[in-house]
Amino acid sequence: MLNQLESQYSESLAALENVTDSESLHAWEIKYLGKKGSVTLLLRSTGQLPAEERANFGKRANEVKNLLFEAYAAREKLVAEQELALDLEEGALDVTLPGRERPAGGLHPSTQTLRQYAEIWAEMGFQVYRSRDVETDEYNFQLLNFPPHHPARDMQDTFHTTEPNVILRTQTSPGQIRAMHELGENGTQPIRVILPGMVYRYEQITSRSEVQFNQVEGLAIGHNIRMSDLKGTVTEFAKRMYGDNVRLRFRASYFPFTEPGMEIDVECFLCGGEGCRVCKYAGWLEIAGSGMVHPNVLRNGGYDPTIWSGFAFGMGPERATMLKHGIRDIRYFWGNDLRFLEQF
Amino acid sequence: MQVPVSWLKDYVDIDIPIELLAERLTLAGLEVGSIHYIGVPQGHVEGIRWPTSNHLVWDREKLLLGAVREVKSHPNADKLVLAMVDYGGADLEQCVTGAPNLFEYKDKGALNPPLWAVFAAEGAEVWDGHSDEPKRMILKEKALRGIPNRSMVCSEKELGMSEDHEGIILLEEQPGLRPGMPIQDVLGDIILEVELTPNLARCYSIIGVAREVAALLDKPMCYPSYEFVAEGAPIAGQVQIDIREPDLNPRFTLSLIRDVTIKPSPQWLQRRLKLVGQRPINNIVDITNYITFEIGQPLHAFDYDKLAARAAGKMPTIITRLATAGETLETLDEVKRTLEPHNILVCDTAGVLSFGGLIGGAETEISPETKNVLLEGANWNFINIRRTMQSQKIQTDAGARFSRGVHPSQAILGVQRGIELMRQTSGGIIAKGMIDTYPKQQPTVKVDLAISEIERLLGMGFTADEAAKFLRRLEFDVKAEGETLHVTTPDYRLDITGDDPVTGQADLIEEIARIYGYDNIPDTIIADAMPPQWANIPLEREERTRDILVAIGLRETISYRLTSPEREALLIPSGMEAPKNGGYVELANPISADKTAMRHTLLISMLENAFNNQRYNARQQIFEIGNVYFKREGQLLPDEPRRLGILMTGPRRTSNWLKDDAGGNVDFYDLKGVVEELLVGLHLSDVSYARASHPSFHPGRSAQLSVGKTEIGTLGELHPIVARTFDLTAAPILVAELDLDALLDLVQDRHEVKPLPITPPVLQDIAIVVNEETPAAAVEAVIVQAGGDLLKGVSLFDVYRGDPIPTGQKSLAYNLVYQTDERTLKDEEVARVHKRIVKAVERELGAKLRA
To answer: What pLDDT, on a 0 to 100 scale, did the predictor assign at position A58?
Structure first.
């Protein structure tokens, strides 16, 4: 038995020397040290030996077992190292081959810009108020201080419907009146809202003009709302939108529903005001029409203009998106070409 | 409007660079869109940017005023002459030229006075007069038919002033001309292109802009003279005026000049008209145009003798009235027009003469034979003029001004200035007096401005003194009384409100702010209390819907909301009935045949997007959230419900070079998976699907979605007929249109989160054979019912048809999860429930357990 043990011992050690991978190592383990392995069986047969041989054999058998486990462990470590080295060396991929595509979803660029606007304005207490697309002439024009046939109406070519005095809104401003009526509680409550939405213009569809586009109108009404607040508030917005170093320019302008009226330009963020194609070499980009709410509009909204005042502004998210990304054709927005949308 | 700086300087001293002036005007609301330079260099002002101009700058050393002292014939050429030019140098320079307008002076000896021309010395840069394309050239010495030549006399084209190359520029004698002056100082100019908003009607003239310049620069205005020399027989008795509609024609003024000579206008006048884009015609017509541009008061000149002839021996009577039915008028643009009842007309006793304030009639216009001219300066209601311009499609310089509003005070000024200029240029004699009928006096506008109001509106205070100064610069008459300014508006302005104190004050505050400069007003943060804030639940839920769909991998589209009922009718296969919805909001003035009405459905948008994309993208997975529009009986404005549209088509997954990602085209269950995922994301339960009956969908592969008892919409495969109609046949089109308002109304503000189980689950599978027509939902419902509390999960993992399952039947295999938090389940408990389930499906569905 002892001889048998010794021969198994040397045989197994020799066999272990030839083991080079984890698969044959596992086979070796089963053959010699497994439940039915030859060494295990020898060890288990200790009890069949005569008593005087038992102690001696048992001692040696345990020694052999322990030695083999040690040798196995050493070999296992070696094999693992070799295999790792092999994998690191030979398992290299062509990393320049393309990965498996995971087509992502995405928001339309207009939605992305609208969300950005809403987020910035929300931080300044302006909440989103939405109103309808199909409007009456009264809300879109008359209550906003555009009398019938007034020349200011020429500034906005209008889609009329077959229903008299019903039009597609040309601006989000009718929402000003609706917000005042709904939130103002008969001219007793201050208001701070933005009014995003689609507006419609009777125009030819070209790379520069569209029949529909989004506007984001802002409205603040209070007992102490001043033009300096309008300037400061829009400046805060512009800093968030275009960076801390942004420069703004405020120009006198005209909108029937404001008095005074003001146009706001931002220094071209592409050329830093040096002049480029985007700003048409002027260094400035128009970002908003604005002004103090006209007394007639306050009245039409239910407010007494001698004790209430307000400011309003209107911005064009598509235009802002075009400027930001160098988009040259506004028709991309509603064309929904996936090759365009996938770039956002 | 084009504003030549040389003309502007007649009325106001400008001592700052024009680029700076343009910026100041822009900031004050007169937006200068562009600056055109004629010969003079572009100025550069620190901090102000204008696009770089690439015009020809006239060399101050080499492009000079030349005096042609003699024109000699060329010894070798009939078509060339030798101009002997005094350019201020020691000797006369001989220029060989073919200019036809010098030929009449050929061999006439010394010219005294000389002909004033533009002399270009050797080395000067000019435009090539013989090139069809704009091309610059440098003058070099070159013999012309044997005579050496190194300089030239220039045409307008060679200076870049116009395309005219018919002859050289010959300037009329005028004081101050001397040979050798840089031509920049004689003909150089800058044109400002000013864009005027409707409130700036008063600025629609050179004087109007000059007033703004004077106010901005704090300079005095220098007005032209309105005096006129009248030496003829009094006008009274020679013509009379009858205004029938004073509201539409508040004022009408006439002056008469006799014995005029119709001829070309003097050069200075022609040049100014050309600078503002007008074509000179003759001295009389040119002056009516000149006054239109100078002071903004359009004038009209009649041939008096033609009026007299029409009056047939009686005194001509000018009648202004509305058109009557059936009247026609041939206007100066040679269009015969049928008049409408709202058109205000200038007529006489014989009929219609002209459109008031817009365009004259052909019959009484000035002709080369005209001897006596009746000059009209009138005032018209701007709203009415605008209506007529729109309905008659008339665009004239007069109409541009009257439709924006001209103050009646300007009518008489225009006539006074115009008639005197006519006298000076035509040699006629002005009749004494004028006929001035002014039945509708424009009230003088007075506003009391409380100084405190300025700070209330601007956020910045001014003293009464400061505010008064700004207003006076704009020619307001201001009297200060304590903290109130009593302000009288100058008589050319119509934009200051007199009958509403709040608005009038706001109007004046805007004027103060404009002159002070908006940029100089401080920036402040709103100090007012924040209004009450509220939760905008529909918007929040809509945005959440977008986020879920994007996370699933869908792209958002936004489409035109305009379509046509004809396009939408294509969604319904013929013979089928469209869903009853309501009427269309139809446009009265559509822009194109495919955009005549507001859409009823997102399907039209989705299918058009799919069609437009299919050439480049076989795989499309898109969604859109947007309104649809239904006109309702008895409702002025339509309903505008929000919808959610989803479209999927093409390969389920994108292909790759590893070839391990195939999966075929998307089908009903892909779309349903998206809808289910959305509903899970919105935490909606009690969802059910039934066969749909929407005509646009495949009847067997579409479902009606309900949440609770609320119908939400339809999802499924597009009807093959509709797919063919829209040319979408490459792969099945899966679409959904859901009522987003209804869906989001069902969303709960909060949902409970289940605790994580603390005992191990027992998993068992069950396969049930049922008849083909038994819906899976029914099987699942029975399982859930029978499973009771212990059954925590049921999920279908296999549907099998075929051997050994009998034809007409199918096997549905489910994973079942049994679990309770109270204890670890024993096998016998599970077996009991499992058996109950088997019994229930057998009993209720006639099903069998699959062996």
So the answer is: 83
- Contact by Cβ (8 Å): B426, B282: no
Chain A residues inside the 8 Å CB shell of B197: 155, 253-254
A280: nearest CA in chain B? B51
The answer on B363 and B243 residing in a single domain is: yes
Find which of B49, B470, B653 to mutate to test the A interface (most A CBs within 10 Å of its CB).
Answer: B49
Question: According to the model, what pLDDT value does residue B448 have?
Answer: 97
Residue ranges making up the domain that contains B286: 230-437
The secondary structure of B585-633, three-state, reads CEECCCCECCECEECCCHHHHHHHHHHHHHCCCCCEEEEEEEECCEECC
Inside any domain, residue A334 = yes
| Residues recorded for chain B | 851
Q: Whole domain around residue A19: which residue ranges?
A: 2-90
> What local confidence, expressed as pLDDT, does residue A45 receive?
82
For the entire predicted model, the pTM comes to: 0.88
8 Å CB contact of B521 and A231? yes
Cβ-nearest to A127 among B387, B405, B536: B536
Q: Rounded CA gap, A180 and A74, in Å? A: 84
Give chain A's residues under pLDDT 70.
none
Regarding whether B373 and B412 lie in a shared domain, the answer is yes
Sign of the dihedral defined by the CA atoms of residues B480, B481, B487, B488, in that order: negative
CA distance B559 to chain A (A): 5
Contact status of A35 with chain B (Cβ, < 8 Å): no
DSSP string, B482-526: TTEEEEE--TT---S-SS-HHHHHHHHHHHHHHHH-GGGSPP---
Contacts of A252 in chain B (CB under 8 A): 27-29, 510, 513-514, 518
CB contact under 8 A, B561 and A133: yes
User: Which among B270, B96, B291 is positioned nearest to B171, based on CA atoms?
Assistant: B270
Could you say which residues from 97 to 136 on chain A have a Cβ atom under 8 Å away from some Cβ of chain B? 97-98, 100-101, 103-108, 110-111, 115, 124-125, 127-128, 130, 132-136
- Encode pLDDT of A2-36 as tens digits: 788 888 888 888 888 888 888 899 999 898 888 88
Instruction: Categorize the per-residue pLDDT at B295 as very low, low, confident or very high, splitting at 50, 70 and 90.
Output: very high
B415, B320: one domain? yes
The single residue listed with the structure tokens 């209506």 is B387
pLDDT digit string (tens) for B585-627?
A: 999 999 999 999 999 999 999 999 999 999 888 999 999 999 9
C-alpha distances (whole Å) from B191 to each of B6, B48, B137, B294, B804 are 9, 18, 25, 15, 93
Domain contains A133: yes
DSSP B182: B
d(CA B28, CA B32): 10
Identify the bridge partners of residue B32 per DSSP, sorted by sequence position. B194
What backbone phi and psi angles, to 5 degrees, belong to A12? Answer: -70, -40
* Whole-number pLDDT of residue B701: 95
Cα–Cα dist A151/A132, whole Å: 25
How many helices (H) and strands (E) are present in chain B, helices listed first? 22, 40
pLDDT at position A34: 87
Total count of domains within chain B? 6
Tell me the chain A residues in contact with residue B614 when contact means C-beta distances shorter than 8 Å: none
Candidates A149, A229, A334; nearest CB to B559: A334
Reading the block at residue B713, the tokens are 């919409």
**Residue A83, min C-alpha distance to chain B (Å):** 26
- The tally of domains found in chain A comes to 2
Tens of pLDDT, residues B700-721: 999 999 999 999 999 999 999 9
Asked whether the CA dihedral B23, B25, B28, B32 is positive or negative, the reply is negative
